[in-house]
UniProtKB/TrEMBL annotation:
Keywords: WD repeat
Chain spans, region Disordered: 332-357
Highest taxon, organism lineage: Eukaryota
Biased composition (Polar residues): 346-357
WD repeat positions: 246-268
Protein name: WD40 repeat-like protein
Length: 357
């Protein structure tokens, strides 16, 4: 029986997909032949009530997401009902290790006592030096040693739907990665995972908490009169352009096209708008203005320009976009003496025929 696909990824000439039966299959794009299949164990049910009427084997199962290292030799996956992530050796096709999410980490990313604690999204950065695991309301960034570097909590607290890395050009000729996170309230937040708030000591024990990374800017949201959740988005950069093109898909059926200048992503307040910072948040995560136990939210710069909106008329759950490149044949025989010239000759010959007749 074929299982429902939950996530897909295209790499070079291979197509990978994660399914509801806890398998990750690798197929060849030439003829779509399945070359290999990685099977993850089905999680055991914990804490289910004795009167549960779910059928045998009906526990939540499936691969939520997976990410392949740029070297194409390592893969990280997260699944339903598992408070852990799995490392896979793609050279041998076998499991390389399992990293459990500790209680302190789950609490630090907003996972409560009754939350599933499972990873929803996972993504490597472009250099393969770190990866991010997204939970329901927060994210954790891990280094190559699989130890958490920092954590992300959007304020005000809201659900997270998608994460992507984007590459900026550095002043010294190098590159720098930013992490983009889409939220339930229609925003895309941009984080510099190398710039974090200092570590704090927990109240219950003298252990160091994972530092928090604050957003440097945001796109969309209430400041742009957008409140619908951003289920998916893609970040594109046309060749030779200094502007990023961001395509977002929302649950209200709207596909929006944004442009963001690369200079706006630099942490300088003079290069973009600033959101009003009069909103405060209470200790339990609810917005409040008249509560003594509240703290003022930090200001977040608003960036980006909305180019256009397309109403699909249906709920959007996933989205993919890419930059189209010109064919070499069109470049050499295109506008000069190719397609345009051919059309012109056809029109001229047609006029001559009509005149002679």
């Amino acid at each position: 029986m074929r299982a429902l696909m939950l996530c897909t990824s295209l790499h070079a000439r291979s197509f990978c997909r994660g399914a509801e039966d806890n398998t990750i299959a690798v197929a060849r794009t030439r003829d779509w032949t399945v070359l290999s299949t990685i099977k993850a164990p089905i999680p055991k049910a914990h804490g289910r009530p004795s009167g549960d009427t779910a059928p045998f084997g009906g526990t939540p199962a499936g691969v939520n997401d997976f990410a392949i290292h740029p070297s194409m030799k390592l893969m990280v996956s997260v699944g339903k009902g598992e408070k852990c992530m799995r490392l896979w050796n793609l050279v041998t096709g076998k499991k390389a290790g399992v990293l459990n999410f500790g209680r302190e980490l789950l609490q630090g990313v907003g996972e409560g006592k009754w939350a599933r604690g499972e990873g929803r999204r996972v993504e490597w950065n472009t250099l393969g030096e770190e990866f991010v695991v997204a939970f329901e309301r927060g994210c954790a960034v891990f280094g190559m040693d699989s130890k958490p570097k920092c954590r992300i909590l959007p304020l005000p607290l809201t659900k997270i739907h998608q994460v992507h890395y984007m590459t900026l050009s550095g002043t010294d000729g190098g590159t720098k990665d930013l992490l983009a996170v889409s939220t339930e309230d229609g925003r895309i937040l941009f984080y510099d995972t190398t710039d974090v708030v200092g570590t704090q000591i927990t109240k219950s024990a003298s252990k160091l908490e994972t530092p928090i990374s604050d957003p440097i800017c945001q796109l969309g949201g209430a400041a742009d009169e957008i409140t619908g959740r951003v289920k998916d988005f893609e970040i594109l950069k046309p060749l030779g352009s200094e502007d990023f093109i961001i395509v977002t898909g929302s649950s209200d059926g709207a596909v929006r096209l944004w442009t963001v200048d690369e200079s706006e992503l630099v942490d300088e307040a003079s290069k973009s708008r600033v959101v009003n910072d009069e909103v405060s948040i209470s200790a339990d995560g609810d917005d409040s203005k008249a509560n003594g136990n509240t703290t003022k939210l930090p200001t977040t710069r608003q960036i980006g320009l909305l180019l256009g909106t397309y109403e699909a008329g249906n709920r959007i759950t996933c989205l993919k976009a890419f930059v189209m490149s010109e064919l070499e044949s069109y470049k050499t025989n295109g506008s000069d003496n190719g397609i345009d010239g051919k059309r012109g000759n056809e029109l001229n010959s047609g006029d001559e025929n009509s005149t002679s007749s």
